[in-house]
């Protein structure tokens, strides 16, 4: 990943990306919580304007390439939750990305799908976006979403 010298908000502008509104929780939880110098997000689905653009299992109902883009969208939703809580420019490092992929039996391409989240993190944060990660295949996700993404970031003091 190349070094990025601008603030994350400036980099988003350069990339032509506008963070979405924070997705409303679909159950009893908050979108993000700060613990010390870290912000942890709840699992974020790939909502676009309040709805899922695709549903079903990757490898059956959803192509892996489409799921890659859905993982990217879910990551942007997670960043929106971080931005709403503390401000995106306070992020000093992306610590961990966790991606869940609703997978057809036998589908083993979860890492490629979750790259949709990891790749956009690198584009926005450069070296500060180098993170640890899990890519997990599951039988089903809430609302029959194909992917769900969680994010942990380190933040600077206010």
TrEMBL record:
This is Enamine deaminase RidA, house cleaning of reactive enamine intermediates, YjgF/YER057c/UK114 family. Pfam families: YjgF_endoribonc. It comes from Corynebacterium appendicis CIP 107643. Residues 11-154 form the Endoribonuclease L-PSP/chorismate mutase-like domain. It comes from the Bacteria.
């Amino acid at each position: 990943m190349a070094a990025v010298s601008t603030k994350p908000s400036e980099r988003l502008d350069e990339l032509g990306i506008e963070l979405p509104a924070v997705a409303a929780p679909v159950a009893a939880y908050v979108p993000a919580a700060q613990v010390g110098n870290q912000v942890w997000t709840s699992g974020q689905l790939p909502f676009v304007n309040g709805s899922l653009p695709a549903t079903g299992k990757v490898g059956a109902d959803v192509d892996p390439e489409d799921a890659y883009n859905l993982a990217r969208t879910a990551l942007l939703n997670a960043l929106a939750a971080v931005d709403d809580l503390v401000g995106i420019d306070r992020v000093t490092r992306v610590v961990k990305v966790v991606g869940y992929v609703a997978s057809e039996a036998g589908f083993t391409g979860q890492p490629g799908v979750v790259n949709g989240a990891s790749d956009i993190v690198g584009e926005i944060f450069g070296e500060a976006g180098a993170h640890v990660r899990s890519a997990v295949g599951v039988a089903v996700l809430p609302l029959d979403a194909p992917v769900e993404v969680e994010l942990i970031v380190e933040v600077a003091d206010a």
